[in-house]
Design goal:
This protein is of the alpha/beta class. The chain is built from 17 helices and 7 strands. It is globular. It binds adenosine-5'-triphosphate and magnesium ion.
Amino acid sequence: MSINSNALSTYKLLKATAEVAEKSLEGRIQHYRAHLKSEDKELRTYTQKAAADLLGVNNRTLKRRHDQGDFDHLSIQKGANGHYAYTLSNIFAMADTLGIKSDHRSDQDKLQVIVINSLKGGCGKTTSLVNLAAALATTNIKRYRIGIIDLDPQGSSSSFFPSDDHEPITVGDLMRDCIELEEGETWPQLVSESFQKTHIPNIRFLPSGMDDFYFEHETATELKESSGYDQTRHYHKLKERVIEPVQDEFDLILIDTAPSLNFMFYNALMASTAMLIPVHPEAVDFDANNKYLKRLGEIYHTVAALGHEGWDFMQFLVTNYVKGNHSQRDIVKDVRTAFGRQVMSYPINHSSAITASSSSFNTIFDQKTSDSLASRESLLKSQENIKDVVDELEMLIRSNWVSTQSSLD
Ligand SMILES: Nc1ncnc2c1ncn2[C@@H]1O[C@H](COP(=O)(O)OP(=O)(O)OP(=O)(O)O)[C@@H](O)[C@H]1O
Ligand SMILES: [Mg+2]
């Protein structure tokens, strides 16, 4: 087969562009790593008062327990001002010492697997997901065990949780079965290790990689050559190969997706127990969203026919909402009129703090207030906003756990 010479030039241009883009991305990551002052991403630290608030104990109790030497084994560092600077890991370990129990789901409570998806690119899927996860992990002492899976090969959420490993095992590697087990290693062990620890102690992260794109092509080929669903189980790979082997290690798994209804997305649907659909309140986005919903119904029908057990909840989440913008307010009204209680009570507001922290791959809960490129006021305001959204999300999750239902009723 001969290639047209013009096409060859186009191809060369694309290759050169890709090299420049790769260097630029690497440069950006280096730059922000340097900005973070250490190779490993560090979480903000807490003052003694903030630690006491998070632990739900009085500041004097904390001081007394320090004086008694109860926390000596934790080697808590002091800041430049000579006061304790607690990390979240310190605070969680202190909670253990103080007998404050973690609030994990019980054996009879179902693991919640929440998928965030919309066909509309740039509507805030990744930003919302990473900030909601960080809020749920860091703003209470429950120590939920949270997993995040980046099912978007572009890896936007992976940038928020950088891996020490330059070539980490990706979700696509596991779904495509292209990793060989070491001698004596089991599949659940391999999957468990692939969910890497992050700078947030109770979040583990399974990254994506560009090669995950091959999943689409390989699945299409597999389908052509197979005689029936049971031979390929191509929509069950995420659920059966990735999630079920580690389901006892998590209370909650959040899945970020690409703006696409591809095979990866069918897999996300099959694994999901709940769905969050971000809606950016701009007219064109809302119209696109309505078309997407029609298609989603059709896709869901396929997944249901293959054994999906239904969602515990499906909610629309208004994202990147500019308060005071009249046309956005009218669209939010339309969204609420159309979908009623399926819409989360609070939108995620547009915030300069989110813009600033996202540009350095941080959530608004990661950073020291002094490191934020936004004002302290805007950071705190945005944190309060996300916490309101998370409170409702947490209520939705817990209302589906048998062990927490009665106390809510
Ligand atoms: N609440 C917010 N405040 C400020 N900026 C926001 C907010 N939500 C999203 N953004 C910005 O909007 C842009 C798109 O957001 P994001 O990447 O989360 O969208 P996405 O739906 O994940 O996109 P894709 O479809 O490409 O995966 C980003 O630049 C992000 O920083
Ligand atoms: Mg995204």
